[in-house]
Amino acid sequence: MDGAARTSGLASIAHDLLLLQALGLRLVVVPGARPQIDAALEGAGIVSELHRGVRVTTAEAQQLVNQAVGQVRIELEAALSRGLPESPYQHQQVAVVSGNYVIAQPIGVRDGVDYQHSGELRRLEVEPLKQQLAMGAIVLLPSLGYSPSGEVFNLAAEDLAVAAAKALNADKLAWLAPSDEAAGPKALTPSSASQTDNQLLERLADAASVVSRVHCLDSNVDGALLKEFYTRDGVGVLITDGGYDNERPATVDDIGGILGLIEPLEQQGVLVPRSREQLELEIEQFQLLERDGLVVACAALFPLADSDAGELACLAVHPDYRQKQLAKVLLRRIEEAARQQGLSQLFVLTTHTAHWFKEQGFATAVVDALPVERQQLYNNQRNSQVLLKTLSH
């Protein structure tokens, strides 16, 4: 986590880390200390040079870096020692350990600039670290690295976190940062994250080659870690290749999810009832929007025999997502599928949502405008409105 994140809500962050550990997660915490180092150097009257966003750490500055990083570690250990009062875990003592797990080497000279005591990861002592995790300890990796010759190097905490996540083949990497650095779209692929103007997201994206989910969170959001990990929408930026939001054709495995969407609307009379057996027969006509494994919207396209028209049916959106314009997204997908099938007209029959369809370019039509075969199936008792949209090619 960013050093600024630590200062903004250390007690709350520590509480969430302890709760995650109690829930069974094995945690490696990389506390940054950049603001604390800046303050220490400023207090000593030392001007810190940056090159390519990396601090040039002189021998004089390294002493203050060591002190600042050590103070950050001590404060975090103290916060994690408070336990979880007023909870079933209030008497559970959690071991918090740190050590010389990070073997570093100097960055050296780049572009003619000697970075001196600024370093980069050479290797991580993975097996001893895994042993601590297996025993239930929370492992701290302060942003310092040690060389076999006994030197100490100042490391960028973000890069250390990425390298550690990759070396441990972690399931998740979460980075807490100030709101201006943690801003971005809800979900990104590694390639799109690496092309943003956000340097933090670009650096974190490197972990996504190994770690299935990388999260960048606003440290000012109380409970950000818990909300990100245990709610479907989360509160941060997710970098993943795993397909957080998917648009795809339905399969028989999706029938349960589709029924969960349409059955409440069938009970309200919005949709015509469909049995599971009917859905199995029609499943290839359905398109889905999926968020993190949950079917959040569905619709079907039925080409009408002996015509260049198709019927849009069974458009449904999960109640939690009806304000997110997903119906429009799915309608565009259905329209594109209709064009690919050579259809030039799209019909919809509705009793409740005619106004919305008119906003999407549909016009009121008469039953006689339907192909003859579909007219014969029209339910006069239901008295649905018929709407028509001509598709441009």
* CATH fold topology of the largest domain: Carbamate kinase
Architecture of the largest domain in CATH? 3-Layer(aba) Sandwich
Overall tally of structural domains: 3
Count, helices: 13
CATH-assigned homologous superfamily of the largest domain: Acetylglutamate kinase-like
Low-confidence stretches: none
DSSP helix fraction: 25-40%
Q: What overall form do the CA principal axes indicate?
A: elongated
* Cα-based radius of gyration, to the nearest Å: 28 Å
Task: Describe the protein.
By secondary structure, the chain is of the alpha/beta class. The chain is built from 13 helices and 22 strands. It has helices spanning 3-22, 34-43, 59-80, 126-134, 157-167, 190-193, 199-205, 224-230, 255-267, 276-282, 326-340, 354-359, 372-376, and strands at 28-29, 49-51, 54-56, 96-97, 102-106, 109-110, 113-114, 119-124, 138-140, 144-146, 152-154, 172-177, 187-188, 213-218, 237-239, 245-249, 286-291, 294-303, 309-317, 345-350, 363-365, 385-390. Strand 6 and strand 7 form a beta hairpin. The chain has 3 domains: 3-170, Carbamate kinase; 171-243, no CATH class; 245-390, Gcn5-related N-acetyltransferase (GNAT) (Aminopeptidase), CATH 3.40.630.
Which properties best describe this structure?
single chain; elongated; 393 residues; alpha/beta; Aminopeptidase; seven-stranded mixed sheet; Carbamate kinase
